[in-house]
Write a structure and sequence with these properties.
Layout: E1 3-7, H1 11-22, E2 26-30, E3 43-47, H2 48-52, E4 64-65, E5 70-73, E6 80-82, E7 91-95, H3 96-110, E8 113-115, E9 120-125, E10 130-137, E11 140-145, E12 148-151, H4 158-161, E13 178-188, E14 198-202, E15 210-216, E16 219-226, H5 232-245, E17 249-262, E18 271-272, E19 275-277, H6 293-310, H7 317-330, H8 335-347, H9 350-358, H10 364-368, H11 377-386, H12 393-411, H13 419-431
This protein binds flavin-adenine dinucleotide.
């Protein structure tokens, strides 16, 4: 059976490890952190089905609990738009530590070997293919060789970053393609819950980005997020302002770490000979929402199925391309419109956002609609024309033009591996 090395116990890598180990593949997962440190110290939203499909049994307690509606607050706080309450039966919050524990247990039960405290330092390659991963283990560098390296080591994966340029995989995810976050939970000293429970603050304190406060009876969940790197001073300023608005915020009880999220369309090349990237490493997040749990796990499952279908054939780029193609058809292509819209949002100033929200140009229709591609971008540009805000219009018109080209660009992606056609598609894809 083929030997599979998973670099980083990310969600996609673990999903692939579960499926492949169940089929008898020799799977080793190399994770930098200690077992006890796995998973973010907070709750995030995911689809219950993505998890339960992967588990062999039902967890004693449903790990996914409902999430609530959101309000969007303008930079000056003059305008707030609140979504109507929509309870989802399928999506909800999951404790990230519980999620990781479930995935790790499942992978180990399936027969995968997990090694913790073993950071990958680089890809091991010959001229033509990735042959394994170099790690730092017990005070020395050692190499784990395999037929396939699944790169699930997150946004800054040293494996992806050290791939030779000739393999065609983008090494870096730039700061402009990144959302910089800090997240912490605070005691709720009175049990007060706001309506809506979650408030997203655009350009909070004038800083380009988005913060939120999510109130629960026993805690307040605070995110500070920037389109550029943030530091403790930004966090302290945001907290000071939130403490004035939410006087029941007590001492910090969970979280408190800075974490980056890739905020761009999926990388144009996910595979090379003996190599496949999944999850944040491949920018598999919603470019507006930053959500990547479901996408990573779905990618891991598709990748595992591709490996199983390949049978005895070598895991060359031609074979692995099928994983990339299927992922894009199912999920990757859908992210393009969000990425185009994100580009527009990032180009606005706090004053622009105030103007757009106060004048009811940016409404819930634009902010919370799940159907941006079919959405009223033309109507939006017309609204702007009426209100004569010419500086913003060209960017929106360009975005509208790019949105209209999405289907044609996606159709260019070849189903089977063809270097020239892939290069042409990737160029058009990145240019949108
Ligand atoms: C504040 C915040 C809120 C979010 N909210 C949501 C949400 O509501 N819904 C949602 O779907 N997503 C959300 N996300 C995004 C989500 O966390 C990621 O998209 C998701 O975790 C998938 O990423 P991943 O598993 O590929 O990478 P990661 O979660 O980064 O996992 C990578 C793993 O690789 C390990 N690793 C890193 N470097 C090395 C190395 N050198 N060697 C070995 N191992 C290494 C890490 O320790 C980690 O275990 C949020 C992220 C943040 C930061």
């Amino acid at each position: 059976m083929k030997k599979i090395i998973v670099a980083g116990a990310g969600h996609g890598g673990l999903a692939a490890a579960v499926v492949l180990a169940r089929q008898g593949y020799d799977v080793t997962v190399l994770e930098a952190k200690k077992r006890a440190g796995m998973g973010h110290d907070w709750h995030d939203v995911m689809n219950r089905g993505t998890l339960t499909e992967l588990l062999s049994g039902s967890p004693a307690e449903d790990p996914v609990f409902p999430h609530t509606n959101t309000g969007f607050v303008s930079p000056s706080k003059k305008t707030e738009l609140a979504e109507p309450y929509r309870r989802s039966e399928t999506a909800g919050y999951v404790d990230r530590k519980v999620l990781l524990r479930l995935l790790i247990n499942e992978a180990e039960q399936a027969g995968a070997q997990l090694r913790f405290g073993v950071p990958a330092v680089s890809a091991a390659c010959d001229c033509e293919k990735v042959t394994g991963v170099r790690v730092y283990e017990r005070g020395r560098i050692r190499e784990y060789a395999g037929d396939l390296v699944i790169d699930s080591a997150g946004i800054d994966s040293p494996v992806r970053r050290t791939l030779p340029g000739s393999f065609g995989v983008k090494n870096e995810i730039s700061p402009k393609e990144t959302f910089f976050t800090w997240r912490g939970y605070f005691e709720n000293t009175t049990g007060a819950v706001t309506e809506p429970e979650i408030r997203v603050f655009f350009y909070h304190n004038g800083r380009p980005g988005m913060d939120w406060v999510n109130t629960k009876a026993d805690y307040a969940d605070v995110l500070v997020g920037g389109f550029a790197p943030i530091d403790q001073t930004d966090v302290d300023r945001a907290l000071e302002d939130f403490r004035a608005d939410y006087p029941f915020m007590g001492k910090q009880i969970r979280g408190g770490s800075f974490v980056k999220i890739p905020l761009r369309r999926t990388l144009p090349m996910l595979v090379a000979n003996g190599y496949a990237a999944v999850g944040d490493c491949a920018a598999m997040t919603g470019p507006l929402s930053g959500s990547g749990i479901d996408l990573s796990m779905q990618a891991g499952k598709i990748l595992a199925e591709t490996v199983i279908t390949a049978g005895e054939a070598p895991l060359a780029v031609q074979t692995l391309w099928s994983y990339q193609y299927k992922y894009y058809q199912a999920f990757g292509n859908n992210q393009l419109s969000y990425d185009i819209l994100k580009g527009i949002l990032r180009s606005l100033t706090a004053q622009d956002v105030d103007f757009l929200m106060d004048a009811k140009i940016l409404t819930l229709k634009e902010i919370s609609s799940a159907e941006i591609r079919k959405y009223n971008a033309r109507e939006f540009v017309e609204k702007l024309n009426i209100l004569k805000k010419p500086r913003i219009v060209p960017g929106l018109a360009r975005a509208l033009s790019h949105l209209s080209q999405i289907d044609a660009v996606c159709a260019k992606m070849p189903e089977t591996y063809d270097e020239k056609k892939i290069a042409a598609w990737a160029k058009a894809y990145e240019a949108l």
